[in-house]
Amino acid sequence: MVIAIAQLMVVLDATIVNIALPSAQRDLGMSDANRQWVITAYTLAFGGLLLLGGRIADLVGRKKTFMVGLVGFAVASGLGGAAGGSGLLFGARALQGAFAALLAPSALSLLTTTFTVGRERGKAFGIYGAIAGGGAAIGLIAGGLLTEYLNWRWCLYVNVPVATVAFAAAAVVLRSKAVPQRAHLDIPGVLLGCSGLVAIVYGCSEARPRGWGDGLVVGMLVGGVLLLGAFAWWQARARHPLLPPHVVRDRNRGGAFLTMALAVIAMFGMFLFLTYYLQTVLGYSPLKAGLAFLPMVAAIVIGSTQISARLLHLVPPRFLMVPGALLASAGLFTLTFLTAESAYAAHVLPAELLVGLGMGLTFMPVMATATAGVAPRDAGVTSATVNTAQQVGGSIGTALLNTIATSTSATYLASRLADAARHSGGHPVPPAVREAVVKAGVVHGFTVAIGVGSVIMLGAALAAGLIVNGPAPRQDQVPATGSADSAESAVR
C-alpha cells in the first residue's frame, strides 16, 4: 500500500493539473505560450533524471531514497500550490519532477526485491500495474473534483498530506536490504544519458505548439538521439556504468521495455483526445469529463488485479501481453467511428472498457517481466528504465498524435469551409454551419490520430509476441530472464 500510494502520486501528477490549467492560467496571468510549462517542467525533470534516480537508489539504499523522494515531492507540491506567480509554479513543478525521478524507481525496485515469489509477486504487480495503467485517468478525475469543489491549488496541495501519511508508514513497514557495493557514480553517463532524455522529451513537448518540422524541435530530437547513442557507446566501456548493458540486452527485458513504450504512446494520445472530446464536443464540465474515465479505471484494475495477477504464474507473460494489446487496439479502433453527435454510452464507454481491460492485461506482466531476475545491485536502475520507457513514450505519443490530429483537422476544415462558401453563393457561411463544420473537423482529427494510435498498439502486441519468449515464472522463485545476473539473483 505504501509503494502504491507513492507511485499513484507520481503518475497522476502528470495529468492532475491538466483540467486545472485554465484556472491557474487566469489566477497567475500566464500567457498561452508559457502555460505549457506547467506540464513540460514536470515531464522534463522526471523523464530526464530517472536513470540517475534509479542508480542513486541502488547506491544509497532504496528505502532511504524512497523516503527522501516523498519529502521532496511534498515540499515541491506545497511550493507549487502556494505559488504567487508563474515562475515559482514552473520551478515547483520541475522540483516535483526531480523528486519523482527519485521516488518512482525506488518504489518499483522495492516492490521487485520485496515480492519475489509466484502468487504474492503476482498480486503486488497486479496492484502496481493497475496504478501504472490507470494513474493518468485517475489524475483527470481528481483534477476535475478538486478544481470544481475547491480550487486549482489543491491539485498540488493534495500531495502534502498523502506524502506525509506514506512517509510515516514507510518508516515503519518498509524493509530494504543494503546491497554491499562501493558508491561509484558514472558522471559521463549521467551527463550523456540525462541530457539525451531531456532533449528528446523537450523536443516532443515543443512539437505540439511548433510542429515537427520546426528547427528547434528537429535539433532537439536529433541532438537527443546522438547523445543517447554516445551514452550507449560509453556504457559499454565504463567501469561502473549508469545503465549496465546487460540490463537492456536481455531479450525479455528489452521486449518488455519496447512493449511499454509503444503501448504508452497510443494510450496517452487517447487520454488527450478523449478529454478534449468530452468537454469541447459533448459539452461536459471538467468534473463530468473526469468522472467519464471511471469505467476505464475500473477495467484496468480488473484486468490487472483479477486476471493478470492470477494468471502470471501459470502462463508465459506474452500470453497476457499480446491479447491485452490486441484488446486495447480494438478499443482504440472503435473510437475512430466517433462523430460530433456520438453518445457516451453507445460509443465512448465500450471503447473505454476494451482499452482499460487491455491495458490491465498488458501493463502488469510488462512490469513484472522487465524487473524479473535482475541482480539486486541493478534493481533501481532497471526500474528507472521501465519508468523512462513509460515517460518518453507518453511524451512522444502526446506530441506525435496531437500533431497528426491538428494537421488533419486543418486540412479537413479548409476543404469543408471552402465547399460551404461555394454553396452559399458568395455570401458568408452561416454561423450554425461554420460551427458544425468546425466541430466535425475537430472530431475528424481526433479519429484519424486515434486510428494511428490503434496501429501503434498493434505494434506493441507484435513486439510482445515476437521478442518476449520467457516461460511462466515458477512459484518458488523470481522468473529468470536468461542473463547471468538473473541466475545470480535467483540463487540469492
From TrEMBL:
**Coiled-coil residue windows:** none
- Its membrane topology, per UniProt? Multi-pass membrane protein
Q: Which GO terms describe its molecular function?
A: transmembrane transporter activity
Compartments, as annotated in UniProt: Cell membrane
Task: Outline the segment boundaries, as ranges, of region: Disordered.
Answer: 473-492
Q: Which CDD domains match?
A: MFS_MMR_MDR_like (cd17321)
Query: Which InterPro entries does the UniProt record give?
Result: EmrB-like, MFS, MFS_dom, MFS_trans_sf, Sugar_transporter_CS
GO annotation, cellular component aspect: plasma membrane
Where are the bilayer-spanning segments?
35-54, 66-92, 98-118, 125-145, 151-173, 185-203, 215-234, 255-278, 290-312, 319-338, 344-367, 442-468
- Name the UniProt key words of this record, in alphabetical order: Antibiotic resistance, Cell membrane, Membrane, Transmembrane, Transmembrane helix, Transport
Q: Describe the location of the Major facilitator superfamily (MFS) profile domain by residue ranges.
A: 1-477
Coarse class of the primary localization is membrane
Task: Tell me which Gene Ontology terms the entry assigns under biological process.
Answer: response to antibiotic
Which PANTHER family does the entry link to?
BLR6921 PROTEIN (PTHR42718:SF46), MAJOR FACILITATOR SUPERFAMILY MULTIDRUG TRANSPORTER MFSC (PTHR42718)
Tell me what this protein is called: Puromycin resistance protein pur8
Q: Which organism is it from?
A: Streptomyces lydicus
Upper lineage is:
Bacteria, Bacillati, Actinomycetota, Actinomycetes, Kitasatosporales
